[in-house]
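Q: What would this chain look like folded?
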Amino acid sequence: MSRRALIGIGAALALVGAIVAFLVLFDWNLLRGPIGRYASARLGREVAITGDLRVHPWSFSPRVEANGVLVGQPAWAKALDPDTAPMARIGRVALRIKLPPLLRGRTILPYLIVDQPDVRLLRAKDGQANWTFGATKRGQTPVKLPAIQRFVINDGRLRVDDRQRRVLFVGSVSAQERAGEHGGRFVLEGRGRLNDAVFLAEVKGGPLLNITPDHPYPFDADIRAGSTRVLAQGDITKPFDLGRFDARLSLSGADLNRLHDLTGLTLPNTPPYQLSGRLTRAGNRYAFEKLTGRVGDSDIAGDLVVLTGGERPYLEATLRSRRLDFDDLGSLVGAAPATGRGETASAGQRIEAARRDAIRRLLPDATLQVDRVRAMDAKVSYRAETVNAPNLPLRKVSLEVNLNKGVLTLDPIAFTFSRGDLKGRARLDARPAVPRTDLDVRLTNARLEDFIPIMSDGRPVIEGPVMARVRLSGEGNSVHRAAAAADGSITLVAPRGQIRQAFAELLGVNASKGLILLLSKSDKQTPVRCAVADFDVRNGVMTADHLVADTGVVLARGRGTLNLGTETMDLRIEGDSKKPRLVRLFVPITIRGPFMAPRVGLEPGKAVGQGGAAAALGSLVNPLAALLPFVTTGEAKDADCAGLVDDARRQGAPVKASR
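A: My prediction, written as structure tokens:
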């Protein structure tokens, strides 16, 4: 070998030796400052290594250990709270990285150990989050972690302050591989409090030892927050790409609305629920497919998709029930469900139902969470094939719901009765400080006998077609408050029909005829020429413009008010007989008191006057004169039914024009 070649080999060996000596003798702590400055510039916040930095490069899996890692808060978080603690303080981070896969573009860590991490996550009301590094981008790529074959967290502490969702979690986190079948399982545990409720989380994964990015990673999770429980079992499609997974999911709890703290989704108030289905994630798309279960006493099934990454989350769902329990539907607007035997209700809903019964209120007064309505968009279609609705002839329900930029629209609302339909639309504008509700619904082709209780003999009191229209608009953050401020009109029309003559006679307080017919249980009918109830609504008070019932034997007219704010009524009905009667008291009928328990009575003033005058006249003339005030010649005339019905039609009641 030539002298020159030997010199070259010697120089190369000397260089290698120098490099080796340098790496062996080099104080890696000298790189703490440059690494911290580089990371600070890239992440937009202070990053520092305050303890020793150790590197062991002599392996195909080099080892790095950093002690005293500090990650500060971004500038906006410091401005929000000058005394806030750093985003993260970590006692020690130790890891290995495999070089051969890294050269092929894949990152595999044989182990990652994190000791005593204290992490504080913060999201402001405007959506800025300290876990987002650099400029915030809509549709940002979900987190992709490297494949970690052994992952350990010791004595971790976690604080999550989400001011956008008004959620605060403070708890502890630890992660270890535990001995067991197939080489052990990875376990991540967390415990703490979420909005003053106990929060527990346990995530278990398969053995990490032989994990690679090419094979799905199995996991199961059990999360509890108060009465809410979430169970999941499935696979992360590409470990550890958290943007893709497929799992069987089960949910249960007291109220779907409470899932907001965990999901950020605006879901309706409901009775207790149990749901299950297949949950998949592909980037910003979450699909909850083949959903089945129960909400209250109603079954539910369908498919649901949530898209994130936009200005607001977007939810789209097609849902159906084979059998809907009608009081479960009332929970959507804040009404407490029924609490009788066999009914499903949470403890809180039972308390609300007891309060409702105690104060005898009909309209729910639960406050609408307008900030949640503004926070997402949605399109939901719902169908109920059959309905359990005691005392109502309801057969089917159909709803189309649209939520867009704080405006919630139900169009159409469709209730199908055994005979007739109730259809219309409702619009809730939650953009103003005080939301506004507009309601316009029509009842068509319905029958009176389907809504009025039948007699003990099984025959109806009244029969005939009935139509109605309700148009209301009011401001308020609950159903009760919106109704208490509502303006509009309510019109109900029965253009023809039949009524038991006994009840028709009693409209005019015909003491002889009506009582005799009732006591004899007569089923004799008399025609209903027309019945019209037309109310003008101003500031929550319904005032009767027309309140007329024209039968074959009595013409009854009424006046009065119904107050939607106090939920009380004050109506007065006077009847005139169309036929001569011996004992006929000219005494108005009154209906007064709360909607839930009105009192029907007689206004005694006129009767007393009649009786007193008769007694005085009888003492002067003859005893027969005492009967004169109670005798009527039956001179009441027919009402102008054609005109009344036409007026109702012009008010929007769905009746045909008179000929």
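Residues 607-635 have pLDDT under 50 and may be disordered.
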